[in-house]
Amino acid sequence: MTIITTPISTAIGVEVAGYTSDDFLAPDAARDCQALLDRYGVVVYREAHITDADLVTFSRALGEVVVAGAGGHPDHPEISPVTLDPTKSALAGLRRSTIFWHTDGLTDLIPQKATLLTAREVADEGGDTEFASTYAAFEAMPADKRTELEGYRVVHSVAASQLLLNPAPTPEQQAKWDAAPSREHPLVWPRRDGRKSLLIGATAGQIVGMDAQHSRELLDEILDWATQPQFVLRHQWRVGDLVVWDNTGMLHRAIPYEPTSRRLMHRTTLVGEEAIA
């Protein structure tokens, strides 16, 4: 079948049509994917129907694969089922926070490199995934704003993201969140390839040295800027789609869907390769 590659917008995303599961095993498949990822941030393989075994093999060709400590697929521990159905995943209850814009791994020194997500079942309503390019958002800012933001550092924490779901936690809940690791990062991440991305989203709780109200207002302002339509791709899932995204430069979130939905995704994650400086 002919492979057709079509950019989705000037700022973010490219669609690849014509792939089948076997195509991901070709010697140049991972190289081609990485090149598209570097240029577009999000690569959409439409209705490729990649098998679980081939998903693991393709992921390994792109980098080192994270093996989750809990909730992995029984036959392929590198794969994490993503669902709100507790009978299909032990981590179903933790997925509610994915409706907020976030980048994975910002409480770590080295965030995950990339994520691969394929649709096994899709929701009848909702369940789309949105992505936002913080590379493009930062580049589009006025020069004086970019200079200002480069001077800030931000504390990322589990507590910040959980407060979005539950703004009035019990003392026990707050203590549990506070016990989880937090991490201070620059707000603007200068990359080794010369690009710059924004470290913002649900885990961004406080700008260092700034009062809480002003900090929250500024973080919200930056997030609003970065998630304007010109920087965003909204992917409407079809069964068999595979989406790969650069976790170090893209925000993402799930559009809410019913807890009873049959929506089921299989995900692999690549170990980070670049420490935040």
UniProtKB/TrEMBL annotation:
<keyword id="KW-0408">Iron</keyword>
<dbReference type="Pfam" id="PF02668">
    <property type="entry name" value="TauD"/>
</dbReference>
<dbReference type="InterPro" id="IPR042098">
    <property type="entry name" value="TauD-like_sf"/>
</dbReference>
<dbReference type="InterPro" id="IPR051178">
    <property type="entry name" value="TfdA_dioxygenase"/>
</dbReference>
<feature type="domain" description="TauD/TfdA-like">
    <location>
        <begin position="6"/>
        <end position="269"/>
    </location>
</feature>
<keyword id="KW-0223">Dioxygenase</keyword>
<comment type="similarity">
    <text>Belongs to the TfdA dioxygenase family.</text>
</comment>
<protein>
    <submittedName>
        <fullName>Taurine catabolism dioxygenase TauD</fullName>
    </submittedName>
</protein>
<dbReference type="InterPro" id="IPR003819">
    <property type="entry name" value="TauD/TfdA-like"/>
</dbReference>
<keyword id="KW-0479">Metal-binding</keyword>
<dbReference type="GO" id="GO:0051213">
    <property type="term" value="F:dioxygenase activity"/>
</dbReference>
<dbReference type="GO" id="GO:0046872">
    <property type="term" value="F:metal ion binding"/>
</dbReference>
<keyword id="KW-0560">Oxidoreductase</keyword>
